[in-house]
Amino acid sequence: MRVAVIGAGIVGVTTAFELAQDGHAVTVFERRGSVAEETSFANAGVVAPGYVTPWAAPGMPAKVLKHLLSRHAPVRMAWPPAPGQLGWLWRWWRACRAPVFAANRAQMYRLARYSQQRLQALTQALQLEHEQAQGYLVLLRSAQDLAGARGSLKLLAELGVDFHLVDAARARQVEPGLNPSAPLHAAVHLPSDEVGNCRQFAQAMRAEAQRLGAVFQFQRQVLAITPGAAPVVQHRAAGGTAAPQADAFDAVVVCAALGSAALLRPLGLRLPLLAVHGFSLTAPLRVLEGHPHLGPQAGVMDEKYKVAISRLGQRVRVAGSAEVGGRLDVMAPAALSTLHKVLDDWFPGSAHLAQAQRWKGARPMLPDGPPVLGASGAPGVWLNLGHGSSGWALSCGSARVLADQLAGRAAAIDVSGLDVARLAR
């Protein structure tokens, strides 16, 4: 089949690879100059299926309101509200009911676990290097943090996740670079989880997809999709004014993150996608004689501030804070302040912060949490989008599921509830 993939973030690139591996003639349309240039550019890099969970959780609205004015609030609400933001928040609030959360969390964990297995299989089979490091440590600063995490630990146990609740001494053995002066009550150690460079993996997947015959058309803006037995993609040079070109395919897969909503609206699909912005800073690690453990060995998460610190080769990435709505081109000083604080708390003096790269990305979030996978309902148009802050952790599994669905094969996991029909309820 001739298949068009719209979007070359981590989800679009892995989808292109899986489709090309299945023997399809794949063309990828991307408005930027390369892969993973937007939401996938500088994320935390964490692959921890047990911590892939919906934002829409019981008690979450109260937590957001409680911390709304806190200097280091994990979540901030942009003002004035973005178009559609109030409606999105209403749907998010309704999805916070315990039964809905439980179903969504199970779906996301199942997909994340499958995705991790697929990521590891591809990494091994294709001999890929993406600055991967094994292990993930969730830091609990106080007894109060541990008490607040009990519900999550219970869910991890129910899901069969490999984790260990350890004391501060053991946590410092796992991550010897942790600041010995920082208060630490306990930690959750997940030895089977990992961190890696999402953008580097996307670049490797692009090369592998091209080796299989996939064609990447960069600097191409998709203007419209005409569904049908031979769906048509209208596109032109990004930012250009020339007459658009039109190419017919046997199927079109939309992986265009926030841009998906505008493409699908004329087809009768009104997806409640909202930008939830995330922040990160990436800096070179210092090399000091006599101090071999500057920075993390792999990945840590500060549970109180919801900030991850990941080692990517000889660099450290600090990622976290969330801004609901807002503008991509306006950096939030308070969010960056939180990232600096958490890094200084746990790994003081570990990085050349004068050389830090600061980043803000617009993550395409659906109000209930899980992504949308499968047929759109419009003939010839398929969906793989809405992964929110978990695109890296869900990408490989989502891509394989989508390729199987397009081929008419049963997916390797249960994907009920991930189809677009759930958003109509």
From TrEMBL:
What sequence ranges are listed for the domain FAD dependent oxidoreductase? 2-404
What are its GO cellular component terms? cytoplasm; plasma membrane
Q: Name one GO molecular function term.
A: D-amino-acid dehydrogenase activity
Q: Where is the signal peptide?
A: none
Q: Which keywords does UniProt give here?
A: Oxidoreductase
Name the Pfam families on file. DAO (PF01266)
Any single GO BP term: D-alanine catabolic process
Per the record's keyword annotation, is Oxidoreductase included, yes or no?
yes
Q: Which NCBIfam families match?
A: PRK00711.1 (NF001933)
- The family this protein is said to belong to: Belongs to the DadA oxidoreductase family.
The molecule here is called D-amino acid dehydrogenase
Q: Which gene encodes it?
A: dadA_1
